[in-house]
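#lab-general

N.A. 3:47 PM
ok so I finally got the sequence cleaned up, no stray characters, all 113 residues accounted for. can someone with queue access submit it? mine expired

B.Y. 3:52 PM
send it over

N.A. 3:53 PM
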Amino acid sequence: MTLNPWKLTGYRPGLNVICKIVKDEPGGYSVIIPKDSLPGFLPTLAKLRTGDEISAQFVCVHNNRVLLSSRFSRPSDPELQGSPVPKRPLPVTGENAVALPLPKPEEKNENES
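B.Y. 4:20 PM
back already:
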């Protein structure tokens, strides 16, 4: 499914939107923004149910889906309540792993003493 650019008019980073949980995925949930029928992804460790409607913030469009940031008023997971950063790290899998380049060793110039 390709996103219709006209439906994205007016979306900007930080915009609050309502999204509906469609299904769970590694690292979060597949969602839909009912207002414009836009597919999205909500990364979170919170326990949510299919069909839940929650408030989230628009971040950007990535992999032909809207990327959202959670804005829960009542996290379902008590461990996340009142904590801006989850206490459990996100498990790293092949799907969400990020490769960072290692710094190159400094080369000595032959003319340096």
